[in-house]
User: Which sequence fits this backbone?
């Protein structure tokens, strides 16, 4: 049951303007208080004033002098100093002992683009070139990585999912072998809702998972077959995003536990390889999506490939602040937003600053707005943590570092609420939950949204796996229920068609481009409503003693169950 709390919601704007004396104090639950906010003059003004706060911080963080906030640059120095200053001004305590920072060690690897993958069997021989027919790289942080004469095995989707009774590696030992893997999961392939959530992508469908599992199985190399449909993007995205400098977390063991070579094959390359082994790619692909599939050796074909890397290390910072819990200081709710963006590219003529105003100066501003709101009330019973993470754009690295080096114990971290790219188009009737039907946090979201007369819907393209593509995912991975929601497109003022057109215009013309710049004409009242919604959810959780759980069948439930056992 939700505890009665938050009389402060009646006056959520104390930190900006004194509440009018005429306001009637109302006792009630967070929902009813939030409902009051959505329906009275006071609340309209609360939304307006939160919108102003979002404007102010977003404008600062996305200014040209912040240089696009790339990790380990002067832009980072300015960004993290600003965040510290603002947390101090709000009176929010340092979140890491007496520091507002958590150092994140990063390593940049650039793979030479002349690598060749050699395939050799008794009836088959091929050379695949980097960029055109394959892409390769390595998580191992070494100047030279090589695999020679490694037997090849087709392992279907490369999935080990005990909760679904599925193990593509059950019948095969792939130690020191090269595994060839399909992208996405059997649910997408068959569109059978009984199989891996049907069309919606599970984590088992993400390419990152495929490499992690291949490493657990002891493989030497893992090559994913690219197909545009199930991947969700074309080969050009693979070849461009895998070339050039790749930033990863610095690993003490230099990632010796990862496979030596991670990479991709084009579909044409894969079909040629299967042909060479006397096998049919299409029929094996079909078989791999059926329960009981067993891995298939690719004849006597062996793979050899060597890569040369230039390796450089540097340090970036997560920023962290806390409102300590008054009764349950061992338990925490963590709000996250990534402060970083893509920086400056001096080789580009004209505007070459990727300001990242929407992505994610807005979410970072949201973190400050939430901290200000929570500071106005009585101390929460549990810790409320505000974590601005670095290097999201390089592969969710700051949040990964935090999850692997937690400051607040993972077992007693109750929930994560993430903000990435707030709505700049005004108030929306709908709230989209990314990765719907994952955890009980969605019940809290429904209540908070209903209190604003809004409705919750699932994301329109769950097969693209957006749930695995922002920082909350690293909390999910260690078992913490993690919520990622955002304003939808059902504009109160202009209707759904208009809302969808705005979102499309952003995706086409500003997403990850220098034109993602601050605009004083943005309508941030919808974002402000989202902030009030997260405030309601975070505040409710902070004053409860319950632990929301993953729904049955979710891929992160097992690891959370281990945490829950450790708690008792
Ligand atoms: Zn982002």
Assistant:
């Amino acid at each position: 049951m939700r505890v009665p709390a938050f009389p402060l919601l009646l006056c959520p704007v104390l930190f900006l303007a004194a509440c009018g004396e005429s306001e009637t104090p109302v006792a009630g639950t967070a929902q009813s208080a939030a409902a009051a906010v959505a329906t009275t003059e006071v609340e309209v003004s609360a939304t307006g004033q939160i919108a102003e706060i979002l404007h102010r911080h977003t404008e600062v963080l996305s200014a040209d002098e912040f240089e696009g906030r790339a990790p380990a640059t002067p832009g980072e120095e300015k960004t993290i100093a600003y965040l510290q200053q603002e947390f101090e001004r709000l009176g929010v305590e340092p979140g890491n002992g007496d520091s507002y920072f958590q150092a994140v060690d990063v390593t940049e690897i650039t793979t030479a683009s002349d690598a060749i993958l050699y395939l050799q069997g008794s009836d088959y021989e091929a050379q695949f070139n980097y960029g055109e027919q394959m892409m390769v790289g390595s998580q191992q942080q070494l100047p030279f990585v090589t695999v020679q004469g490694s037997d090849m095995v087709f392992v279907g989707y490369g999935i080990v999912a005990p909760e679904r009774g599925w193990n593509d590696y059950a019948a095969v030992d792939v130690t020191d072998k090269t595994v060839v893997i399909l992208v996405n999961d059997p649910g997408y392939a068959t569109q059978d809702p009984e199989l891996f959530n049907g069309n919606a992508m599970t984590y088992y469908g993400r390419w990152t998972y495929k490499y992690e599992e291949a490493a657990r199985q002891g493989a030497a190399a893992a090559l994913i077959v690219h197909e545009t449909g199930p991947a969700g993007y074309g080969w050009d995205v693979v070849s461009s995003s895998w070339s050039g400098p790749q930033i990863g977390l610095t690993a003490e063991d230099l990632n010796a536990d990862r496979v030596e070579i991670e990479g991709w094959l084009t579909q044409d390359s894969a079909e040629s390889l299967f042909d060479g082994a006397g096998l049919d790619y299409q029929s094996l692909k079909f078989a791999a999506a059926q329960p009981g599939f067993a891995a298939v050796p690719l004849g006597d074909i062996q793979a050899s490939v060597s890569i040369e890397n230039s390796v450089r290390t540097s340090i970036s910072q997560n920023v962290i602040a806390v409102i300590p819990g008054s009764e349950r200081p061992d338990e925490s709710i963590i709000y996250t937003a990534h402060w970083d963006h893509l920086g400056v590219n001096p080789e580009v003529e004209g505007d070459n600053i990727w300001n990242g105003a929407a992505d994610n100066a807005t979410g970072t501003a949201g973190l400050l707005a939430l901290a200000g709101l929570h500071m106005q009330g009585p101390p929460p019973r549990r810790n409320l943590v505000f974590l601005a993470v670095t290097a999201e754009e390089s592969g969710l690295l700051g949040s990964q570092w935090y999850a692997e080096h937690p400051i607040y114990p993972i077992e007693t971290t109750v929930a994560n609420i993430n903000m990435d790219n707030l709505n700049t188009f005004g108030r929306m009737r709908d709230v989209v939950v990314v990765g719907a039907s994952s955890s009980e946090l969605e019940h809290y979201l429904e209540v908070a949204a209903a209190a604003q007369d809004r409705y919750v819907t699932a994301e329109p393209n769950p097969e693209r796996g957006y749930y695995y593509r922002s920082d909350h995912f690293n909390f999910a991975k260690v078992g913490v229920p993690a919520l990622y929601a955002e304003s939808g497109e059902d504009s109160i003022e202009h209707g759904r068609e208009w809302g969808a057109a705005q979102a499309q215009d952003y995706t086409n013309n500003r997403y990850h481009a220098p034109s993602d710049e601050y605009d004083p004409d943005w309508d941030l009242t919808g974002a402000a409503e989202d902030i009030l919604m997260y405030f309601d959810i975070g505040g409710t959780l902070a004053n409860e003693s319950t632990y929301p759980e993953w729904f049955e069948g979710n891929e992160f439930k097992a690891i959370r169950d281990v945490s829950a056992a450790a708690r008792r």
In short: The domain at 58-99+324-567 is CATH 3.40.630.10 (Aminopeptidase).
